[in-house]
Write a structure and sequence with these properties.
Blueprint lengths: L15 H8 L3 H7 L5 E3 L2 E6 L3 E9 L4 E4 L5 E2 L1 H9 L3 H9 L12 H21 L9 H8 L10 E4 L7 E6 L4 E4 L2 E3 L6 E7 L14 E5 L6 E4 L6 E5 L2 H11 L2 E4 L19 E5 L4 H15 L4 E4 L3
Parallel strand pairs: 13-14, 13-15, 15-16
Antiparallel strand pairs: 1-2, 2-3, 3-4, 4-5, 6-7, 7-10, 8-9, 10-11, 12-14
Helix pairs in contact: 1-4, 3-4
Length: 314
């Protein structure tokens, strides 16, 4: 889910012929044009995800002309790839691909320059999305959504509400980053937000999946930063969860400090950020292969720092 100022994009419609023209661009050419380095394995190009990192979670099938990320759930054809990488609308992606003057030069930039520019663009998109948030107040879609999940506690400043805009539904937005503790138990948003987590919602607080069935997305530089839902307290314990909803439930139940990773694959990168004074960390991961595997990796890294670790379900 991304909001784009449509007044900057010219006319409001695109033709079927233009869509087919855009889809005719080979996905591997678009990857190469952006300086994204992947290695070939059979009919696929494999490597780190340009959005959420990792090692081998991002793949491009050159035979089927589609891509997929197992970490942040991005997938689709070359148009979906441009939307995924640039955080733009379908129309804007088509416009970029067919080359209306905004299309980048055919000669690829040096990989290090391309990566740096892509990171800057993704971080700017995330920061802009966060700047559009409003507080989650009673009756807003995020409030209804969380209450249906059983959460009735205070809403941290690291979560916000994006009202619907045009064809985009409302959303709950979470900020990746180390939050500032203004006073015991009270946090403010991170001073610099370069990554966000979005949950698309209907006006009644239900999830609003897109055409591909996806309701949750991440934009920006999300790896290596938590969504802080509550700060550690005098108990010197904290919990790391995969998702925001699970994290809020843990906070409501236990009152300890809680960080949400945003997804299972982002959990291991949080190990180095756990404060030194924490004595016990509990890890809550979903009961599937990805959840268990990443919970174990995180647990080992935290334990290596001399901190006691408990992993629920293992």
């Amino acid at each position: 889910m991304t909001f784009t100022n449509s007044s900057r994009l010219g006319r409001s419609t695109i033709t079927p012929a233009e869509i087919e023209h855009a889809r005719a661009v080979r996905i591997e050419d678009e990857i190469a044009c952006r300086g994204i380095t992947l290695r070939r394995v059979g009919a696929e190009l494999i490597g780190p995800c340009p959005v959420c990192g990792g090692n081998n979670r991002f793949g491009v099938n050159v035979r089927k002309q589609v891509f997929n990320c197992r970490g942040c759930t991005g997938k689709g054809d070359v148009i979906a790839l441009v939307r995924f990488l640039d955080g733009c609308t379908f129309r804007h992606a088509v416009t970029k691909l067919i080359g209306n003057g905004q299309r980048r030069q055919a000669t690829p930039k040096a990989p290090e320059q391309s990566v740096a520019q892509d990171d800057k663009t993704r971080a700017a998109t995330a920061a802009w999305l966060w700047s559009q948030r409003k507080p989650i107040t009673e009756g807003t879609p995020p409030s209804l959504y969380l209450s249906r999940r059983g959460y009735t506690g205070p809403i941290p400043e690291t979560l916000g509400y994006l009202p619907s805009r045009g064809s985009y539904p409302a959303a709950m937005i979470g900020a990746f980053g180390i939050a500032v503790e203004l006073q015991p138990g009270i946090i403010s948003a991170p001073p610099q937000v370069i990554g966000v987590h979005l949950t698309r919602l209907t006006a009644h607080g239900d999830k609003a999946p897109n055409a591909e069935g996806e309701a949750k997305f991440m934009h920006g530089l999300c790896k290596g930063a938590p969504i802080v839902l509550s700060p550690p307290n005098d108990f010197l314990r904290m919990t790391v969860t995969e998702g925001i909803e699970d994290g809020l439930t843990v906070y409501q139940t236990t009152g300890v400090g809680v960080w949400a990773a945003g997804s299972a694959t982002l959990m291991p990168a949080l190990a180095a950020l756990i404060p030194d004074y924490i004595e016990i960390v509990t890890i809550c991961a979903h009961d599937d292969n990805t959840g268990r595997k990443n919970a174990i990796v995180l647990a080992r890294a935290i334990k290596a720092r001399g901190i006691e670790v408990l992993v629920q379900g293992l």
